[in-house]
Write a structure and sequence with these properties.
The chain is mainly alpha-helical. It is about 60% helix and about 5% strand. The protein is built from 23 helices and 6 strands. The chain has a two-stranded antiparallel sheet. Strands 3-4 form a two-stranded antiparallel sheet. Strand 3 and strand 4 form a beta hairpin. The N and C termini lie far apart (about 85 Å).
Length: about 450
């Protein structure tokens, strides 16, 4: 055939040193292995050789390219070529011989077979690397073996191992593995209890949302007790959103704790904006539940006195100042405020305007703006994430990102510089995103839509 004649003809070209022409002729004659050989040995053009291997999937050609890179000592490229050309066994052997297993594993990525992953897992098993060994048994779908190694990692690998172990147990759906991992998390295997957030992640992975919620409340309580209010707030908020997504009723304790933490976080925002009255109202709410903030009792009560006094709530300022005079708090008052507080107690001024009232969004009964339990219809009311006041049916908007409610008129004013973060989910909100909602779902954020 003409192809073979051309090949014979240009084969001579190769002997005359005309390698480019020879390569073209071999390609025309579909003798790709010769084209690869000339590009590597004579034209020193590995790029072209690589292109041909990739296009033709020539196994022999791939071996030749791999050999070329191997001779250069570029084992990672040699391995890559063997993998691209589906020669995983040769690639694996090369990786083992030249300590390139991590590169081999990275190159085969997520496209390999279970056998490939098991081979890598066994390599790491033999080299005493439980994290990598567990990870590749996980990729191979052998969740029991994966867990066996992942709960035996050295201390600095625990975080990475637990993320994989939780996913493995979530996929396995086997009680025996779940219990094994819970024992490890509780410290029953190595005597070291793990952070509660891993238990939370495990329950989420198993879709056991009620257990996850209980755990989230415990985690948030620990954070709150140690004074990490923003962390506690964010843990509860994330869990809250997860439960809503799963259409599960939010536990009352979670509703109450998030509301208190959010009220506390709003204080700083309103003091910065010079709205001392809103800050004072939120501090009164927090101070009435002061036992939930054990790390900062004196500081919170002091702020409450100062903000109430500043905004004309003199009776409230007096009652919290009197509380600060108790022996257990008195010695801890910041010297900067001590005189002022003692003066408020000595010369009581108990004048205080009543808090303005607004209609309950559920039954219409009038109640003070920051009261979120209606005495008439006995409902826990949705609150505005900007002011902490109960919502009004006629002035309702929602954050475009997290869908939590806010008083439309207030949020518009709050977001007018268009770089404002939503006070609860921390995403930027601009005024054009805030729509007045005519028929709001009052209980969407309590996970009990329609049964209020």
């Amino acid at each position: 055939s003409s192809g073979i004649n051309a090949e014979c003809h240009y084969g001579r070209g190769e002997h005359d040193g005309k390698f480019k022409e020879a390569a073209k002729a071999y390609e025309a004659g579909k003798d790709y292995d010769s084209v690869i050989r000339i590009n590597l040995d004579n034209l020193r053009n590995p790029k072209e050789a690589v292109r041909i291997v990739q296009e033709t999937q020539s196994v022999d050609g791939a071996r030749v390219v791999a050999k070329f890179f191997q001779n250069l000592g570029d084992y990672a490229s040699a391995i890559q070529f063997l993998v691209v050309s589906k020669c995983n066994d040769e690639a694996f052997t090369l990786a083992e011989e030249h300590n390139q297993m991590a590169q081999y594993a990275e190159i085969i990525g997520d496209d390999a077979t279970a056998d490939d992953y098991i081979a890598i897992a066994k390599h790491y098993e033999a080299h005493g690397k439980p994290l990598q060994c567990g990870n590749f048994f996980f990729k191979a779908g052998d969740y029991a073996k994966a867990l066996h190694y992942l709960i035996r990692v050295p201390p600095n690998d625990v975080d990475a191992a637990l993320d994989i172990a939780i996913e493995a147990v979530g996929k396995a759906h086997k009680d025996s593995l779940t219990h094994q991992l819970i024992d490890y998390l509780m410290g029953e295997i190595d005597g070291v209890p793990k952070a509660a957030r891993y238990l939370f992640n495990l329950y989420m992975s198993l879709k056991q949302y009620r257990e996850a919620a209980r755990t989230a409340i415990i985690i948030a309580k620990e954070d709150q007790a140690s004074g990490s209010y923003r962390t506690a707030h964010d843990v509860l908020f994330e869990m809250y959103q997860n439960l809503l997504q799963q259409k599960i009723k939010i536990p009352n304790e979670m509703v109450h704790n998030l509301m208190l933490l959010h009220s506390y976080i709003l204080v700083k925002t309103h003091v910065k904006r010079g709205d001392h009255l809103t800050a004072a109202r939120m501090l009164i709410r927090v101070a009435s539940n002061i036992s939930k903030f054990p790390s900062h009792i004196t500081q919170i009560l002091t702020s409450t006195v100062i903000e109430c006094y500043r905004s004309g709530l003199r009776a409230s300022a007096f009652s919290y100042a009197a509380m600060l005079m108790r022996p257990e708090y008195r010695s801890q008052i910041d010297p900067k405020w001590k005189k002022k507080i003692e003066q408020i107690v000595r010369k009581p001024d108990k004048v205080e305007e009543e808090e303005p009232s607004d209609p309950c969004p559920q039954c219409g009964a009038l109640l003070p703006q920051t009261t979120i339990e209606c005495g008439e219809c006995k409902n826990t009311l949705p609150y505005c994430i900007v002011t902490g006041r109960h919502m009004l049916k006629a002035d309702w908007t929602e954050c475009p990102h997290c869908a939590w409610p806010a008083l439309h008129s207030v949020f518009l004013e709050f977001a007018k510089d268009n770089k404002t973060l939503c006070p609860i989910c921390n995403v930027v909100v601009s005024t054009d995103q805030l729509k007045l909602i005519e028929q709001p779902n009052l209980y969407a954020k309590l996970g009990e839509a329609g049964d209020g």
